[in-house]
Amino acid sequence: MKNKILSIFLSLILAITLSSCAYSEMDATYDKDAEELPPSMFVEVENGLNYKIVYCKETKVMYAVADSYASGVFTLLVDANGKPMLYKGE
User: Is residue 87 classed as helix, strand or coil in its secondary structure?
Assistant: First the structure.
């Protein structure tokens, strides 16, 4: 009797689990054609294996950006005196 109840219970759990995993289409909540993304405030200078070097267009201050496990982490680059490194190109 216990085996019968257990098998019915497990069958019900399996049926509920499988029926709740259905795929459904999602409506877009934004207009893809409305406008483009705003321009970035950073310019990429170098692209390494796990990092990128960028600078801010307005201030020319340079940053290293993690491009792997800790992606999105900005690190300020400093010179020998501890002052922020400034991009000297363009």
Answer: coil
User: Left, alpha or beta for 12 (phi > 0: left; psi -120 to 50: alpha)?
Assistant: alpha
pLDDT of 54 reads 93
- With b for 16 or more beta-carbon neighbours within 10 A and e for fewer, the 56-79 pattern comes to beeeebbbbbeeeeeeeeeeebee
Residues forming a β-bridge with 80? none
How far is the C-alpha of 8 from the C-alpha of 33, rounded, in Å? 52
Domain boundaries, the chain: 40-90
Mean pLDDT in each 10-residue stretch from start to end of the chain (90 residues)?
A: 82 73 56 67 90 92 85 88 90
